[in-house]
Amino acid sequence: MTVGSQVKTCFSSIKSVEASLQMLAEKTYEQNSYQAFKDAEAIITDVKNDLQKQVIMLSKEEPQYN
């Protein structure tokens, strides 16, 4: 497995985690839990955005693996 495919797999997983945190935040009625989910979601969104940049960069460096 190439580095590019590993980063893409990680990116997909992070997107799934982000969606799960959004869903949990929407379903909770307790303010502290809601805020904890939203804080975690913000961190995961930052990680997702960084990984997306890496996916783009790696796809340019490793075009044969796209």
Describe the secondary structure blueprint for this structure.
Blueprint: H1 3-27, H2 31-61
Helix pairs in contact: 1-2
What sequence of helices (H) and strands (E) makes up the elements? Answer: HH
How many β strands by DSSP? 0
Low-confidence spans: none
- Helical content class: over 70%
Strand content: under 5%
Mean pLDDT: 91
Number of helices in the DSSP assignment: 2
What radius of gyration results from the CA coordinates? 15 Å
Major sheet characteristics = none
The outline comes out as: elongated
N-to-C terminal Cα separation, in Å?
12 Å
Structural class: mainly alpha
Tally of structural domains: 1
Outline:
This protein has 66 residues and is mainly alpha-helical.
Describe this protein's structure.
The protein is an all-alpha fold. Helix content is 85%, strand content 0%. It contains 2 helices and no strands.
Output the keywords.
66 residues, mainly alpha, elongated, DUF1657
